[in-house]
Task: inverse folding
């Protein structure tokens, strides 16, 4: 080597920590150093040799680090103790290269371990969409998150949630359902009938304005003839009032007789009470056959008008001076919404708002704490109304798939006493002793149901929890508790007790279906006894639920059929199990599933058809069930492919044809003559001002009415005699019969079967 040749310089020993060396900052050479402590990276402070190679190796290192996913967590590097000045560790190039190679090996090992961990954590996107994925739990994993069954439908802000206990969520577990329904619907009779119904709907909407005002002198003018009212009142007392206690029968019957004797009396509480009772019963009564219009059946139209009238009465009612009638009308309104299939998507919100009102009124507190400010009779009626409200809210939460508000609510209101209505009266000073549970009374249902309210509330919260899931041992333990509660239901001999006894059984037995649903939906007969017990248990409970509904429907009694969804949940679960059992190697499961399917399929279809025909709405569930039944049938007999398809679409076509053949013009209905059309909300407000300013001697013109309103407010007498104006019917522009609302689930806006996008949900 010549003297002029530049001598190769040796690199200095790296004495600072890695982070300070990288940032070219002064390091105090402590462990951890002050700069790492101040930068909140003390755990990453480490000392060690840097690679001695030049820029090419650095670029390779950057590429290797870039290949690591951004979600990596930094591992604490284990390095030797700080290197002292003059130490011979860095004086040998061979030793330095060995240490550098060892660091690269350690880094590669950490990257491989990290990639293995991420391969376990990553989940399949298709499972994330239906919330049905449970991450596998290895021995080295700590509390992996568990996703429950459920469905989030829609997109952007227009989403609807259906939790694990909701019957709608089971639809998401039929992967072939969408393509099958679209296939059988195209160019079918049902498609042509649906188009005819849309034409009628469009024609009716072109005739009627979008905002109609029902103008009536008083609520009593909405009542049908007395014979029809008597039938509907008796129907209500024999069905709904044997379970949910809202009325006091002796007081109501006495007031009802006086109500017809004094025909000139208007504006009384009985007007709203009678209308609310009629709205509950009109769609469940068998006194007449329904006819149909563009918004549903004539029963549904009348129920909606009566519900709107009650809502108008409640708005006019003073919130400061609440009466028993106002609380009763609120409870009856919820029953009417459920029975008439009105505001189906909003029913859950309605029950929550109702519970908030009842709590703000203090009905969740026991009447005994009020003392003399609440009479004995008033206290017992408060207990009945609170118990009824709890039952309605709890069932709405179960059907929606969310925990009940009762699970986080503290209340001390005791259960109603097991007494007949004749045992209590206004002015009584002391309640008689509650009768034994074996004795059926007017309040036996609520008295017995309150004994299992805590259990049902807890099960509703556990099965719909987003942060935890029940173990199989807990499932078996709660199943045993529910079975014991079912055995404790008294067997009353009274014929009037049939609906009460059936409902006591159904509201407990539905949890035998719900508890096993999660494992039954993940159909796997090779997973051992857990899956086998879950499948058999859910099949047994589902068959029993459908049989009980069919039995009470044959009485005939449509009250439970039109207000509950447990038979739809049971039917969909049976179809799901039968669908997968047809492909299973377990012959016992396949035989049991096929027998359950054959036993229940026609009963479930009949129940769902009655539910759709009475109010003329809610046919999408019948459409789902009809298609699923055909889809399952194809698994067992593929040779009957065309027959199964024709049967599925034929059931829907017959239902649509019945509605089209019984169509009538809405103007011919009993209430059609009382509908006054207007053009927009502003015109309605002007018309309302005209009514308030009408005088018997002279009727002012439109301009005079507006001027008089600004100049002089109307008197109290004018307000009292003014016509009652109700809000417009919310008919909407979406067909309730097609698979429009639950079509793509999470994938985007709904599509109709013609391939046209629908932005409405």
Result:
């Amino acid at each position: 080597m010549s003297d002029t040749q530049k001598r190769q310089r040796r690199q200095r020993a790296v004495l600072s920590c890695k982070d300070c060396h990288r940032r070219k900052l002064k390091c105090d050479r402590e462990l951890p150093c002050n700069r790492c402590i101040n930068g909140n990276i003390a755990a990453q402070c480490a000392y060690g040799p840097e690679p001695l190679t030049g820029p090419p190796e650095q670029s390779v290192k950057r590429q290797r680090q870039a290949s690591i996913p951004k979600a990596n967590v930094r591992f604490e590097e284990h390095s030797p103790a700080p290197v002292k000045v003059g130490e011979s560790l860095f004086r040998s190039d061979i030793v330095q290269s060995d240490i550098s190679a060892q660091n690269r090996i350690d880094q590669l090992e950490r990257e491989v371990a990290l990639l293995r961990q991420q391969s376990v954590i990553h989940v399949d996107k298709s499972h994330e969409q239906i919330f049905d994925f449970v991450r596998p739990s290895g021995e080295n994993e700590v509390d992996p998150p568990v996703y429950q069954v459920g469905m989030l439908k829609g997109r952007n802000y227009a989403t609807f949630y259906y939790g694990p206990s909701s019957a709608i969520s089971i639809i998401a577990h039929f992967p072939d359902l969408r393509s099958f329904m679209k296939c059988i619907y195209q160019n079918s009779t049902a498609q042509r009938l649906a188009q005819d119904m849309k034409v009628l709907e469009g024609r009716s909407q072109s005739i009627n304005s979008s905002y109609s005002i029902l103008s009536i002198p008083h609520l009593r003018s909405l009542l049908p003839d007395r014979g029809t009212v008597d039938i509907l009142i008796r129907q209500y007392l024999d069905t709904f009032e044997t379970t949910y206690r809202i009325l006091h029968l002796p007081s109501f019957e006495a007031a009802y007789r006086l109500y017809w004797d004094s025909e000139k009396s208007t504006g009384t509480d009985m007007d709203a009470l009678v209308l609310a009772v009629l709205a509950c019963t009109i769609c469940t009564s068998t006194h007449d056959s329904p006819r149909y219009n563009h918004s549903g059946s004539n029963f549904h139209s009348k129920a909606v008008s009566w519900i709107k009238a009650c809502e108008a009465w409640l708005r006019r009612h003073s919130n400061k001076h609440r009466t028993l009638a106002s609380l009763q009308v609120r409870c009856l309104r919820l029953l009417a919404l459920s029975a008439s299939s009105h505001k189906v998507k909003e029913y859950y919100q309605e029950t929550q708002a109702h519970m908030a009102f009842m709590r703000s009124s203090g009905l969740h507190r026991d009447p005994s704490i009020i003392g003399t400010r609440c009479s004995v009779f008033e206290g017992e009626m408060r207990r009945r109304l609170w118990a009824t409200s709890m039952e309605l809210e709890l069932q709405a939460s179960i059907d929606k798939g969310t925990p009940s508000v009762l699970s986080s609510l503290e209340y001390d209101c005791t259960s109603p006493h097991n007494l007949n209505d004749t045992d209590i009266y206004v002015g009584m000073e002391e309640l008689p002793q509650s009768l034994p549970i074996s004795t059926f009374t007017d309040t036996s249902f609520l008295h017995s149901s309150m004994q299992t309210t805590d259990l049902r509330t807890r099960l509703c919260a556990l099965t719909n929890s987003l942060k935890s899931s029940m173990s199989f041992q807990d499932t078996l333990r709660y199943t045993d508790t529910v079975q014991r509660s079912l055995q404790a239901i008294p067997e009353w001999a009274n014929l009037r007790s049939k609906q009460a006894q059936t409902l006591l059984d159904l509201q407990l037995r539905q949890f035998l279906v719900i508890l096993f649903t999660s494992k039954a939906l993940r159909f796997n007969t090779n997973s051992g006894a857990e899956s086998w017990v879950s499948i058999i248990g859910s099949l047994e409970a589902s068959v029993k639920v459908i049989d009980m509904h069919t039995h009470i429907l044959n009485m005939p009694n449509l009250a439970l059929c039109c207000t509950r969804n447990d038979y739809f949940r049971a039917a969909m679960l049976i179809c799901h199990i039968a669908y997968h059992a047809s492909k299973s190697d377990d012959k016992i499961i396949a035989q049991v599933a096929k027998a359950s399917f054959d036993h229940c399929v026609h009963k479930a279809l009949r129940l769902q058809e009655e539910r759709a025909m009475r109010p003329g709405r809610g046919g999408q569930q019948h459409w789902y069930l009809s298609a699923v039944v055909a889809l399952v049938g194809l698994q067992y007999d593929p040779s009957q492919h065309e027959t199964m398809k024709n049967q599925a679409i034929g059931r829907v076509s017959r239902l649509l044809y019945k509605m089209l053949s019984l169509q009538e013009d809405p103007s011919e209905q009993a209430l059609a003559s009382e509908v006054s059309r207007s053009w927009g909300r502003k015109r309605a407000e002007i018309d309302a001002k005209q009514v308030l300013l009408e005088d018997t001697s002279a009727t002012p013109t439109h301009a005079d009415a507006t001027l008089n309103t600004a100049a002089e407010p109307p008197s109290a007498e004018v307000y009292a005699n003014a016509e009652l104006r109700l809000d417009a019917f919310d008919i909407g522009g979406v067909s309730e019969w097609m698979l429009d609302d639950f079509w793509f689930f999470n994938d985007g806006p709904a599509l109709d079967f013609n391939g046209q996008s629908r932005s409405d949900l």
